[in-house]
Amino acid sequence: MSMTMTTTTILSVLSILFLVSVSASNNPSLLHSLKVPSLSHLSSFQDDLSYSLYHTTCPDVEGLIYRKVKEWVNKDPTLAASLIRLHFHDCSVRGCDASILLDHNGSERSANASKSLRGFHLINDIKKALEKKCPKTVSCADILTTVARDATVLAGGPFWMIPFGRKDGRVSLANEAAMVPMGRETITNLIQFFQSKGLNVLDLVVLSGAHTIGRSTCESVQYRLYDYKGTKKPDPSIDPQYLNYLRRKCRWASENVYLDATTPKKFDTQYYQNLKKKMGLLSTDQLLYVDSRTRPIADALSFESSLFSNQFSVSMVKLANILDAKSQDNGEIRVNCNRVNY
Ligand code: HEM
């Protein structure tokens, strides 16, 4: 009885949070009052984004991008997850400014932390086609966010509308790529990282749900399997059977293993159900079900698939609207996504 009560309460709270965040995304003044913490340098540029920006200057931009993403994902379905991750890594450093795409020496992309990122060739293919149709018009940052949305849809996830007008940044530094969480952080670290971008705990738990698809290199998880934190024992928060599976699967650091062991190719809530069974691949996934600040949210999302997909859209819009004042002020529309214009 009390179990049902608790669940009902959590669901009500989440539904309210969801409704507030939906109405907030449609109501800029409410959005300002909800920001945690208030990051004025991040928010002012969001007002410059517009749904109709390319209506006259590049009318079929979304159609062209969707067709390209579909073509590439049909050829290689593993790309969908990689494209969603690429967008997260872009927005995590200097906002969503395509700084992750620059490939000069010492750029974010060249950093060790970026070495398993994929999908760059697809962005270049789209950019080339767009430069033919509407030269110097569509930013690489806008392409990245649209690609991430379309990849989500093609993986069976939700659709959301995207306002456009992000500028491409001119700075990209390898040491900044190391700030993106890599799976060994504490929940406090993650909450602080998300808050520094204007994202809250609900966004953290919901966006972590992107790990319902895709893979990780074994390199990111091997430390959990044998000698966790110098104990000569595995991470105690891994289910024993799952541990055996991971030890067999991860003999080599370069092997890949699914982030969602149960339904790795379906965009569903199974990721959260796995956490209940101690089957989170990354330590940061599993911790979402251990920490009292995140567990009630993970719990509710595990059996409310419409809540997950609705809130995933809302949180992805927030992620895609992280803009850094400096990158935007000094930004440009790159002609080649891999290089600054001059
Ligand atoms: C909350 C903090 C997060 C941490 C600690 C984290 C960490 C990781 C790690 C370690 C990997 C595997 C890297 C490797 O190949 O070794 C990964 C993969 C992935 N991440 Fe995250 N991530 C986080 C948040 C996010 C967010 C917010 C998104 C998107 C909204 C996301 C989407 C993905 C996807 C889709 C993959 C699979 C990529 C592929 O199959 O190529 N992650 N993440």
UniProtKB/TrEMBL annotation:
GO terms for biological process: hydrogen peroxide catabolic process; response to oxidative stress. Ca(2+) 2 binds at T212, D260, T263, D268. It catalyses: 2 a phenolic donor + H2O2 = 2 a phenolic radical donor + 2 H2O. The keyword Signal applies. Heme b binds at H211. The active site is at H89 (proton acceptor). Substrate binds at P181. Pfam families: peroxidase. The record marks R85 as: Transition state stabilizer. Ca(2+) 1 binds at D90, V93, G95, D97, S99, E108. PANTHER family: PEROXIDASE 25-RELATED. This is Peroxidase. It comes from Cynara cardunculus var. scolymus (Globe artichoke). The lineage of its organism: Eukaryota, Viridiplantae, Streptophyta, Embryophyta, Tracheophyta.
